[in-house]
Specification:
mainly alpha, elongated
Length: about 160
């Protein structure tokens, strides 16, 4: 890479993109009940979407019911998704290190890449154990697959920066 400053800016932009994605996906786990109030009319069985993609719509209705009943009778169940969000935030905070000094903290980027890869078997194993439909597992796996892209480019650029 010829321009050190431009390369460093690109690395930081890629890391900020990853941090924002991780943060937003984590925070979206907190208001599940409210989100499903919005999603069910749009994608549930009684929607026009439901006639086109019935399996997806049945799943949305089932999740809606589970959240309504579970959170209604046992609100402490939501605490699990609160901790999921916390885990996302904790990992996102770790990426402040590479933002400040990418070369010294390349290990955090590699750690993130490993986690992105591990999303796939984790999803397949626990999706099966918990009875999650395969099409939904694909959606969950996409977080790791999409997440590794900016990290891969950031790692590549960091390695090139370390040679200059």
């Amino acid at each position: 890479m010829k321009n050190h400053s431009a390369s460093l800016g690109r690395v930081r932009a890629l890391l900020i993109t990853f941090i924002l994605g991780l943060t937003l996906s984590g925070l979206s786990a907190i208001p599940l009940r409210w989100e499903l109030e919005i999603v069910k009319p749009l994608f549930g069985v009684s929607s026009s979407f439901g006639r086109v993609f019935p399996a997806f719509s049945v799943w949305i209705d089932r999740v809606y019911e589970g959240i309504q009943v579970g959170y209604g009778q046992y609100p402490f169940l939501a605490y699990g998704t609160d901790w999921l969000a916390f885990g996302h935030m904790a990992i996102a905070i770790a990426f402040i290190g590479p933002l400040r000094d990418p070369i010294k903290n390349i290990w955090v980027v590699e750690f993130g890449m490993i986690l992105c890869v591990l999303v796939v078997p984790w999803t397949l194993i626990f999706g099966f154990v918990r009875g999650i439909p395969f099409f939904w597992e694909l959606i969950d796996m996409s977080f790791g697959i999409v997440g590794i892209i900016p990290l891969w480019f950031a790692r590549r650029d960091i390695l090139e920066l370390s040679l200059t």
